[in-house]
Amino acid sequence: MPTVAVVQGHAAAAGFVLALCHDYVLMRSDRGVLYMSEVDLGIPLPDYFTVLFRAKIGSVSARRDALLRGTKIRGADAARLGIVDGVKGSEEELKDAGILLAEQLAARKWDGEIYKVIRQSLYPELCGVLGLGVSKPVLSKL
Questions:
Q1: What pLDDT digit, counting tens, does each position of 127-140 carry?
Q2: Which residues of the chain form beta strands (DSSP E)?
Q3: pLDDT value, residue 133
Q4: Contacts made by residues 53-61, CB under 8 angstroms, sequence distance 24+
Q5: 44: left (phi > 0), else alpha (psi -120 to 50), else beta?
């Protein structure tokens, strides 16, 4: 099933990773940052973190700044960089936008098995490093 993350404040380290694990990410424009603190703390990143960032953040410079500079990325910048799908100005607007998006996606009534196969094929390197075999669609469903 499609997943939606609604980031209402800071999403640091594993919180940033958790947000990126979703299909869609919405964030507030007036508060909160996305931040990978590991470089500032002197902690190496597990392989699956860096593979996730390569899979989900298309801009090489955005990845570099998040992982190697510890840049704190605010909502508007995250949207401009393509890290999040949208920003809203208040907690209520963000909650409503997240619910609306989830309802719109659910209304499509996609076949969950097919959605999973497409998602896995979209992120083969990430699935590989996590030990998730890429599923093949059942031919009877095609």
A1: 999 998 766 655 55
A2: 4-7, 11-12, 24-28, 33-35, 73-74, 86-88
A3: 75
A4: 53/20, 54/125, 55/123, 55/125, 55/126, 56/20, 56/83, 57/20, 57/81, 57/82, 57/83, 58/82
A5: beta
